[in-house]
């Protein structure tokens, strides 16, 4: 596979990986990863702990060497072009080692120099957005504050590609929202964002596409709009009055509502896509409580396939060409 886009296929991808394998001793961490991230998209890299996300990312940055396979990042091979590449990439590691007694500002100034200079005002602006005090020594910072330093150093030089390993870990919900706003702005400015997570909700709103890695292999690649449109939620509704004998049937008759169970004043069911019809039907009665639980990651990805839409094996519902 080449680093350049094939004729007629559009611009070359920001990240292209094929047949990537990597073992640690006898333990095979990656068993043939194939992945293609388009320039300018936000791509979620999802998988449970130990699936191979960090290993893949470390190969992309040439922190570790692959055993076999082809890897191209912004059209370069990280093995031979690692130094040039690191200037164009903003990287947030999964585990940040911050042992210095120096203030966060000094650490960021050091990284800024390595990247050819970053306006101080820009660093200040990012720190203010994330509510990070740059005067405090990095060594004593909490996990969340270290994560903020990591995010500032990843974003501050406005890289062409952001590679973020579990970016929201340790951030409270308000800061997660701020981080997502930063991702959206970066995308609008043309940056490609590749971010890993073990939970779908973290990439749910931000990503254009997502892939699931499991046991060192990509098992599905999905368009997030399609995924969102058919997301199945489990709803639970409590009414002011007990439900009558015909009520469950009325809910079951809704197109996208399944597995309806009525018990006294309580109704539970599963809804694929928008809950609009369910909410409107429920609202004919007095609703005391309504809650929805998101299904787990794999269930969400595979409901579609389990309905017989695709064959087994590596499944790509995004049209094949990544
Ligand atoms: N330095 C190492 N030496 C030996 N085994 C390793 C090493 N790094 C990772 N592994 C193993 O390789 C597999 C993939 O690990 P990796 O860290 O890439 O997964 P991950 O998807 O990033 O998970 P997590 O979210 O837990 O970091 C795991 O089984 C892990 O135990």
Automatic annotation (TrEMBL):
Q: What is its main location?
A: membrane
Q: State if ATP-binding is listed as a keyword.
A: yes
Under InterPro entries, the record lists: AAA+_ATPase (IPR003593), ABC_transporter-like_ATP-bd (IPR003439), ABC_transporter-like_CS (IPR017871), ABC_transporter_ATP-binding (IPR050763), P-loop_NTPase (IPR027417)
Record bears the keyword Nucleotide-binding: yes
* PROSITE patterns per the UniProt record, alphabetical: ABC_TRANSPORTER_1, ABC_TRANSPORTER_2
Q: How does it sit in the membrane?
A: Peripheral membrane protein
**Segments forming domain ABC transporter:** 15-240
Q: Which UniProt keywords apply?
A: Antibiotic resistance, ATP-binding, Nucleotide-binding, Transport
Gene3D superfamilies associated with the record: P-loop containing nucleotide triphosphate hydrolases
Q: What GO annotations for molecular function exist for this entry?
A: ATP binding
Q: Where in the cell is it found?
A: Cell membrane
Q: Note one Pfam family from the annotation.
A: ABC_tran
Q: Family per UniProt?
A: Belongs to the ABC transporter superfamily.
This protein is called ABC transporter ATP-binding protein
Native species: Nocardiopsis endophytica
Organism ancestry: Bacteria, Bacillati, Actinomycetota, Actinomycetes, Streptosporangiales
